[in-house]
User: What shape does this take?
Amino acid sequence: MKPNIPKGTRDFLPEEMAKRTYLFETIKHVFRLYGYLPVETTSIENIDTLMGKYGEEGDRLIFKILNSGDILADLKDKDINTLTGKELSRLISEKALRYDLTVPFARFVAMNRNELTFPFKRYQIQPVWRADRPQKGRYREFYQCDADVIGSTSLLNEVELIKMIDDVFVKLKIPVIIKINHRKLLMAIAENAGILSNFTEVITSIDKIEKNGYSAVKEELISKGFTDIQIFNLFNLFTVGGDSFDEQIAQASLQIPNNNLKLEGIRELELIAEGLKHSRISNTTSFDVKLARGLNYYTGTIIEVKVDSTKCKSQFNNSIAGGGRYDNLTDLFGLPGVSGVGISFGADRIYDVLKELNLFPAGLSVCTQVMFINFGKEREKKCLEWIDALHKAGISAELYPDNVKFKKQMGYADAKKVAFVVFAGDDEVAKNAVKIKNMVSGEENEIKDNQITDYFLK
Amino acid sequence: MKPNIPKGTRDFLPEEMAKRTYLFETIKHVFRLYGYLPVETTSIENIDTLMGKYGEEGDRLIFKILNSGDILADLKDKDINTLTGKELSRLISEKALRYDLTVPFARFVAMNRNELTFPFKRYQIQPVWRADRPQKGRYREFYQCDADVIGSTSLLNEVELIKMIDDVFVKLKIPVIIKINHRKLLMAIAENAGILSNFTEVITSIDKIEKNGYSAVKEELISKGFTDIQIFNLFNLFTVGGDSFDEQIAQASLQIPNNNLKLEGIRELELIAEGLKHSRISNTTSFDVKLARGLNYYTGTIIEVKVDSTKCKSQFNNSIAGGGRYDNLTDLFGLPGVSGVGISFGADRIYDVLKELNLFPAGLSVCTQVMFINFGKEREKKCLEWIDALHKAGISAELYPDNVKFKKQMGYADAKKVAFVVFAGDDEVAKNAVKIKNMVSGEENEIKDNQITDYFLK
Assistant: This one.
């Protein structure tokens, strides 16, 4: 049997693990600095918790788990030949894999409402699974790193989360553009174009403008039954001038016809801009009125982060973080009137950017500090005792397990980037000594064998 | 919709997360001290990688994932009504969830053989999934913490791994008994009883002696077709005297009739006992010739760890760690002749023991160090700047997001165990000062507002 793993999934070797740990720890450090608390949710959710929350495409991409036991029992009394694929699936599958961290979090908040103090600020770093077509940079199992505040409508939360995005990318040394918009402005524009009642459909199309261009999206909208004039009125408001976030908002305010939605959206963006000024943001924040974000559940501010290719040599064009406010997500789980806002870092994409820009710090790999050469059974005993003493002092150490040729043992130490190799051969033992080789400098030292721990503690 | 999660699955709240992190970090620290490197494997494996590796019961308990797309397409040209449940499952499910960490690791080693240096020492801490009947202490999603060495037959590996078990439980302050046996001794006994050809079946039954007692297991063996005399010859050798691990092995050596299997098993156990002496083990090691371990793939030493109830008040009777040597596991994936040995810590069970014995250290929870009271829009700006300075100094700080009553804000700080609360009200602002309240002692201090960071750095 040829060993293999499913398309779109991955294993991580030690070197990648060290880099991933660096990335996760950087993000986690920022989350903690801002008072967010860790939470984890089950990987396996009831299928009804997930279905219908991510739009039609989402439903298709959710990984469903086959019921355990004999599935024929689930099909008893059914005429299998008359069932659609969807109906058959539903009968034999009651559970599914986590698709993102936001919907499970809303479910979590509704379930644990009596044990949480609101506003509740949580972070969560876990894998999610999507049956997407695998391609470069798109995996079927990938990690999301989310921070959300639930139970507060204050825009200070938006300010804080945008500042956290800024902090993370400053620490990672990736220059980014943080794009900001407000769903209510998009709604105002849709209302002006007379197509607010089809808002979800419109959003799905607008979301593709940056990737596919205006004319492709126009065609899509026409095929959905929208008229030329409606589309003109929509697109006409999508270009906003201005050099700074503030100016861009002011321009949009002049440009978009007044209605309640617009006034609310502009007011909120102005307050966020004000807060950001006092938060000393390092990266560029930019207003983009055509920023839509695909997910259904956003109702207020929306945020999307891309690599700033004017400031580095990245070819990476996908968003690497994003987020927004959702007012009604916990409603679906029986907890109405609780607004939430959150951000999500796409760890796997950020990893790819760090790799592309060669931004991983040197020396991340964990390695053994001290390896003892194996000189055979009689000599092993002393080594085990020395190693025990080193471990008690917190120094990583190992004895090569087999008494094989030096060359092989040294090769192992080399490949594993061991810092020091210790020899206790005949010559040394006769003198109650050991020889220590520094594997970086090549320098060798002989010391008394009762001074090994002290030597490495220095 | 009532929010709910599937039976046997769990969410983790911040306080549990802190305790789990303590547990994982303790284990990880020991793994690293001994030179083991981190690895992660995909959660979703091809179903053929897993099926047939864990025995018949294992096959049933593997969570299978429904193929994506229309499953009717997978059933085209099949007469559904003639299929068994198993056949139907197989047609519509090509992937499955990780069931343990050992089989995926064997697959990983075979796949990545050219990039690894052997002997390869890896650790892996990830969830696994089993469709077991949920009950107290048994979950459908739980974490395993594994360390394995692959590519070395040296018994020093066994010694090292047993020492690592000892280290972990010393650090966690759980007294344990580390039971050790050798599959070859069990085989020798089975050979003596004339039932070696049915070894797998015999093992499955022997594994239940401790839980169900001799008479229940005798009945089971009779129902499997074994004779009274065979069972007598089997059970007759299962009681071994002796006070220490050494003596117990010596006793077994006298008791079990000589054959090659026995001689090899005894020789290996003697070498391990010798190594353990020089490794300064703190917990009790004990030889148990009826220790079987359910898994098919073990071929040499087997290890099982239980709480030592003579030394603490634990009621916990399940094994909390275990492991053993497997000579042929990578063969199945096309890499023959590579022996492996490993241990696995059952994180969720160990968690339950730590909780039962009240052994979690105090003050594990991550908390915000400084919270600023929200005095309204005009005051927010200064607070944002002070918080930015605190964050840059590595001090966790947050501004309460809403300008609500003090009582509510202080209640939040209390519930979240914030260490200090900062007030910048009218009186303070007039003096360019802030008031700082120590939430543990209740003590209050007024300081100049340009000294906030310095104050908390001390």
